[in-house]
Amino acid sequence: MRSERGHRAPRALSLAAIAGLLFLHVPLLLIFLYAFTTEEKSYQFPPPGLTLKWFGAAWERQDIWNALWLSVKVASIATAIALVLGTCAAAAVSRARFFGHDYISLLFILPIALPGIITGIALRSAFNIMDFDFSFWTIVLGHATFCIVVVYNNALARFRRTAGSLIEASMDLGADGFQTFRYVVLPNIGSALLAGGMLAFALSFDEVIVTTFTAGQQSTLPIWMLTELIRPRQRPVTNVVAIFVIAVTFIPILFAYYLTRDGEHVAGGGK
Amino acid sequence: MTSAVSFQHVSRHFGPVRAVDDVVLDIAPGEFFAMLGPSGSGKTTCLRLVAGFEQPTSGHIEIFGETAEGLPPYRRNVNTVFQDYALFPHMNILDNVAYGLMVKGMPRRTRETKARDALDLVELKGFEARRPSQLSGGQRQRVALARALVNEPKVLLLDEPLGALDLKLREQMQVELKTLQRNLGITFVFVTHDQSEALSMADRVAIFNNGKIVQVGAPKDIYERPRTRFVADFVGSSNVLPPDFTQRTGGPGKWVSLRPEKITIAAGGMKPGSHAVEATVTSVHYQGAVTRVNTEAAGQAIAVSAPSSFGAVNIGDIVTLQWPADAFHAMEDEA
Amino acid sequence: MTDTAAGTVHDRHGGLLRRISDTLFRHPHLLLTLLIAPPLLWLGIVYLGSLLALLAQSFFSIDEFSGMVKREFTLSTYAELLNLANVDVILRSLVMAVAVTLAAALIAFPIAYYAARYARGRWKAFFYLAVMLPLWSSYLVRVYAWKLILAKEGIITWLADKLYITWALDAILALPVIGGPSLSISYIGTFLVFLYVWLPYMILPTQAALERVPANLLEASADLGAVPRQTFWTVIFPLALPGLIAGSIFTFSLTLGDYIIPQIVGTSTYFLGQAVYTLQGTAGNIPLAAAFTVVPIVIMGIYLSIAKRMGAFDAL
Ligand SMILES: Nc1ncnc2c1ncn2[C@@H]1O[C@H](COP(=O)(O)OP(=O)(O)OP(=O)(O)O)[C@@H](O)[C@H]1O
Ligand SMILES: [Mg+2]
Questions:
Q1: Tell me: the pLDDT tens digits for A135-180?
Q2: ipTM of this complex prediction, to 2 decimal places
Q3: Of A35, A83, A136, A239, which is least packed with CB atoms within 10 Å of its CB?
Q4: Which CATH number describes the domain made up of B5-233?
Q5: Å from A65 to nearest chain C CA?
Q6: What total of structural domains would you count in chain A?
Q7: How close C177 comes to chain A (CA, Å)?
Q8: Within an 8 Å CB–CB cutoff, is residue B63 touching chain A?
């Protein structure tokens, strides 16, 4: 065991850790508070009064519903593509140490290691050059590109932990490659794929920078929020949507955590 | 009669490593065949060639007279008990055992009945619903065995199946495996590190070294008539004596092996005569029924295994070692 | 013994899938190729292709009169990139990225260290989720939260007022360069928001790297007579370094490329991301925008190759 019972952290360390966590969370709490404020023009603190009316107002806004629906569609399809491509890549990389194996990992990391604006502008100018119309599919294309790595990381970690002898045992017992995939490989990597898929969904659902460049006239939920932030109509409605977004992304993260927590980390992905 | 498994000048190289090197071998149907050899000598690779996980670099393999090359594992009527058992962690014991039958498309009812019978055979009734992680090492080993046997393979490959078990369980499983094999009449190819295991269970033993088979034969042959110094050394702990030593004691003037238990020990100095030497006791190890006495005679270490009843000797005693005239077994020279 | 087909020991039949499976088994490289080709093509063509096409455009220029892109090779766009105003933007962004990265490492380390070394069971889960939640909850929401905090009528002003330290706040805002009319219109504000938004990216890999430090290594170090401070600098820190570097890849790169944060919280001067955004958008100067993106690509290229050599990829 790493530390015995009674082996306590130094006080300064605990304080620094707690302060750090507060720094991360207090601002999020404020989002909640401002969803109930009666003041709709400025960011006055403390709020002059509290009300529930913004929840109703948000419910009535058709533009929010449209944006939400678009976001869900984009995230679902981008996640599905990322699941297929990420799993294939992880399977190949875990099976064999071939030449350039490191470069493949690098290539997959690149879309999240380079600033999102580069991915966005590169895709946009490529679409322009090829005379692609900006549409639902151009958004999906952009999102899938950076979602692959999340699935890839999760699947690869699990492939590496799954003993190769299980696959051999299955073939030894008479299962061909497809049967082995269905009855042995898939059940063993399933939870990692689910976790990777959920993270990819959350990532896509929240993506704003790449979307700005690859969307035409459509607006996903984050784009809607960005517009509202710059040119607000009813400020607290933005907060209501923000709370909703936090809730929607938190649930898959929680699931992903519990699916993969035994011994491995949910690989961090970025924008 | 066709062999169960036939290796015809089979080699398997991994780059510069000759894991299996020009092996010629015939295993008879129904035989309990053991492969014995030091680590890295190519035993596992041989099994994997039979199972179909490896393809020979050169040479030819037949299983019951049919060419095996190019046949994927799932098409071979051969099953393996893996060293780490490789039980499917996401299935219960019953599903593990029924797996081979399931992928062949056998209806659930039939395959579960058969799987239960197989579990019965390895005395694991009542464990059907457990997960592999809820079993002990010995129990897992038996599940792995049942999972292979239920497919009624022509050849069963076992890669150090008892390696992870403690001594008592190991001895018990040795007896059970042997009985099972005799009753089922399946050809067993059994890999082990443990020479006493190989000698006690197998009909024939192959001794591996550096990817080659050094000697194949019945356990008694191998034990008593090792072909080379390596075999004498590896199988049991024979005294391997050099030509000049054997010449002086009336031997053939070649490398010989001299079994420790063939030597008698007597207190006091040298009596005249051949097949005897004067020696100094260097250590004494009481081992229950026998006592092992290590001695040194003219710079040559000689171990003696004597009945513990022979009387006490102490370190530093001068003793006389004697052996029957036919106790020397001459061996071929090795490169 | 059941012979599966008359006269044969082995199973030699089966449908199409089995035959495909046979082929793939006999040609493992074919299987590997089939698996790796689709993702490789996707990223190689869609992503790298676009990236290269973008870079190629940095060698074109804008026709001064028509405002159209002239598709001829020229280095004039790069010359333009080096003029004073543009270099100013690049330097400002770099300084900001470095500052954010260092500050993030400083704040992240205690959290990561505590979570890796002292948190157990439930607490460990709590720490992990406490870091993951802000990481994955909406980026915009978090930026927005800081607008609420930093605005002139926002919380900080209110808090300073209540604590009677408005003078201190005013003093900070009066600082040259980094100050401003309010926190939400100053470099301090921009810096705080960057720091806040990218902090989790630093914590997670650092924690992962620290988790991998075996406890017995620390005991061995203590055993050999190292005082805690020595253990920290000679054992823990070097082992945590790949994690910190992996984290800094994100904080650095994300800061360099972001154009939304400085737009919402900050002064009217441009950062690199904003410059690119404006150039490709309203200005329609794709060549110069492309030349600008070369800067972070080159910096990140150098950074990634150093990180790779230090084994930081395993910590990602
Ligand atoms: N896939 C492989 N690639 C490269 N070398 C290999 C491979 N498999 C086996 N070898 C090498 O071939 C040699 C024989 O290995 P093998 O596993 O057959 O030995 P073994 O007799 O089973 O040893 P042990 O008793 O330790 O299990 C070893 O030197 C091993 O390193
Ligand atoms: Mg082996």
A1: 889 999 999 998 998 899 888 888 887 768 899 999 999 999 899 9
A2: 0.81
A3: A136
A4: 3.40.50.300
A5: 17
A6: 1
A7: 25
A8: no
